[in-house]
Design goal:
By secondary structure, the protein is α/β, with parallel strands linked by helices. The chain folds into three domains: about 90 residues, Arc Repressor Mutant, subunit A, CATH 1.10.10.10; about 110 residues, D-Maltodextrin-Binding Protein, domain 2 (3-Layer(aba) Sandwich); about 100 residues, D-Maltodextrin-Binding Protein, domain 2. About 50% of the residues lie in helices and about 20% in strands. A hairpin with a 6-residue loop joins strand 1 and strand 2. Helix 3 packs across helix 4 and helix 5 runs antiparallel to helix 12. The radius of gyration is 25 Å and the shape is globular.
Length: about 325
């Protein structure tokens, strides 16, 4: 019969010990773990030793050269992370129930993200937290940070968030940009440094524009854009009209690639990742409604990551089956 941990033992186990263990597993450093939790290194060792005693299993291989979890430690890490996340989710729900968290929030974003991302996020937030209502405002990228800092807006949705100590940033998604061209351009698979075709720039905000410019420079392309537009549909039309090329979000060009209206210049080789993030003013970090919204975005991002992993695993499995056949 497989041994089990007594119920009373599990009930008496402190959540703080699990958090210390997870922090140690993530950082691989006793000193870093001590710093994160405001305790001493001997206290970290004591917490880990307590867990090992509770489970009657060695969780950590102690070596001067490197830190490593044992198989039992890896199993505990996975379960502990799920437990700690569930507890945080429960805390947020309890706060919402206790304080009747609800009301109107003002979110500011660019017109581009307002079309591409905000509707889905608002729908999912409304489904999970019907008591919270978002009112959207659209602003230029240069004004968005000032609006959040000045309490004109409660939070913002931005692309390529910049580092700013005034704000807390939650990455909501990572959007892939695809290098595409008109099918009659003759550019497929050819180096950009030799092309004479028109480059149509997608410029929804300065951060995205700079991201694409850096990628073009890495490909040894330094010519200024022939045309530039903020809306992706307009960019696609311009690419077809000028027989040119561009960089656009994957979701925007998926259908056009499938129908042959556009082609990838370097299929499956060149990717530019554009992070989409929610930013909140740190001085308002204890605002109960904003706490709920921040946790919602974190869970949304986690769900997208897990979905990508499942999709990649399925694709790899299918590819392996085809190769075996």
């Amino acid at each position: 019969m497989v041994g089990t941990v007594p119920l009373s033992t599990g009930m008496n186990m402190r959540i703080t010990s699990l958090k210390v263990f997870v922090d140690l597993a993530e950082s691989g450093s006793f000193s870093e773990t001590a710093s994160r939790n405001g305790i001493t290194q001997p206290a970290v060792s004591q917490q880990i030793g307590g867990l090992e005693e509770e489970f009657s299993a060695q969780l950590v291989e102690r070596s001067r050269r490197r830190f490593r979890l044992t198989p039992a430690g890896e199993a505990l890490r996975q379960t502990a992370q799920e437990m700690l996340q569930a507890i945080e989710d429960l805390k947020v729900r309890m706060v919402a129930l206790e304080q009747q968290v609800g009301g109107d929030l003002q979110v500011v974003t660019t017109a581009n993200l307002g079309v591409e991302w905000l509707p889905r996020l608002m729908t999912e937030l409304q489904t999970q937290h019907p008591q919270i209502r978002l009112q959207a405002a659209y602003q230029t990228a240069s004004r968005i940070y000032a609006d959040v800092a000045g309490n004109v807006a409660d939070f913002a949705l931005v692309a390529c968030p910049r580092k700013d100590d005034r704000f807390e940033t939650v990455i909501v998604a990572e959007e892939s940009l695809r290098l595409v061209a008109s099918p009659t351009s003759g550019m497929r698979g050819k180096p950009l440094s030799t092309t004479r075709q028109s480059f149509v720039a997608y410029t929804p905000d300065p951060a995205t524009e700079q991201l694409v410019q850096r990628a073009l420079q890495e490909l040894d392309y330094h010519t200024v854009p022939t045309l530039q537009f903020e809306h992706p549909d307009t960019v696609v039309k311009a690419v077809r009209a000028t027989n040119g090329f561009t960089w656009l979000p994957e979701a925007t060009v998926r259908d056009a690639l499938a129908t042959g209206e556009l082609v990838e210049i370097f299929p499956e080789q060149i990717r530019v990742i554009r992070p989409i993030a929610a930013i909140f003013q740190k001085q308002r970090s204890n605002h109960p409604i904003l706490k709920v919204v921040r946790e919602f975005f974190k869970k949304f991002a986690q769900g997208r990551t897990e979905e990508k992993v499942r999709s990649k695993t399925g694709a790899d499995k299918q590819q392996a089956e085809l190769a075996a056949a």
